[in-house]
């Protein structure tokens, strides 16, 4: 494995991520997933997908583990990524977040 | 759901798209009312195929959903979008045929199918956090202009 990729987030995506108002531990987990997992080995973690209009993108999705917040709350993340033209960066072109409350049986 | 279901849906969509394209190029063919009738029925049938794909994903994203299933849901929204793009084209062809005095039944079914698929596409897009075209275009423009944060 070579040097990690640089993760680039354009202002419009950055603003949406900032508005999620994540608990600090969840935010740390999310940043770690992007910086340490995705950037280190995108081939292993990106899944090719097709956008509704036909553009080919790559998706990186994950859920924060229960210990990051209350056990009944799940934080789910979705990032759509393209490789940078410099072949050493990953550009996040879309982001998504859902918070789900898991009801006990 | 097996990958065969997705492959078959894509091939059916491609076949109908090709026929619609051919019709739009060849106006002589478009004067045959029964051909227009068949085309309307095919598009409504295609909508039924897409509805079955939708039903498999209507539960939405779950905490343990594997990424490959997320990609499959994206594919379904893409197929729904392409299927929806057929409806205005088929209506234009039907108007052409009706202009020649022929009756083309099944338009109500076409309208109902379009409304249903439109609703499905929007719902699945929200449930599976499918990308939004304008937001992606904005992001890519910003990146092209060198505007970005480095994580």
Describe the structure.
The complex is a heterodimer of chains A (105) and B (151). Chain A is α+β, with helices and mostly antiparallel strands and 105 residues long. Chain A has three helices and five strands. Chain A has helices at residues 11-18, 24-38, 42-45; strands at residues 6-9, 47-50, 56-63, 73-83, 89-101. Chain A has a five-stranded mixed beta sheet. Chain A is globular, with a radius of gyration of 14 Å. The model of chain A has no long low-confidence stretch (mean pLDDT 94). With 151 residues, chain B is mainly α. Helix content of chain B is 75%, strand content 1%. Chain B has five helices and one strand. The longest helix of chain B has 32 residues, at 67-98. The two termini of chain B are 37 Å apart. The mean pLDDT of chain B is 89. The chains are: A alpha+beta (105), B mainly alpha (151). Chains A and B meet through strand 1, helix 1, helix 2, strand 2 and strand 3 of A and helix 3, helix 5 and strand 1 of B. Strand 1 (6-9) of chain A pairs antiparallel with strand 1 of chain B, so a sheet runs across the interface.
Q: Would you list the SSEs of chain B in sequence order as H and E?
A: HHHHHE
| Radius of gyration from the alpha-carbon trace of chain B, in angstroms | 19 Å
Proportion of residues in extended strands of chain B? under 5%
Percentage of residues in DSSP E strands of chain A: 35-45%
Shape annotation of chain A:
globular
- Uncertain spans of chain B, ≥5 residues at pLDDT below 50? none
Count of beta strands of chain A: 5
pLDDT < 50 runs, ≥5 residues of chain A: none
* Number of discrete helical segments of chain B: 5
The separation of the N and C termini of chain B measures: 37 Å
Mean pLDDT across every amino acid position of chain B = 89
Distance between the termini of chain A: 44 Å
Helical residue percent band of chain B: over 70%
Order of helices and strands of chain A: EHHHEEEE
| Assembly state (oligomeric) | heterodimer
Radius of gyration of chain A: 14 Å
Structural class of chain B: mainly alpha
The helix-and-strand class of chain A reads: alpha+beta
Query: How much helix, percentage-wise, in residues of chain A?
Result: 25-40%
Number of strands of chain B: 1
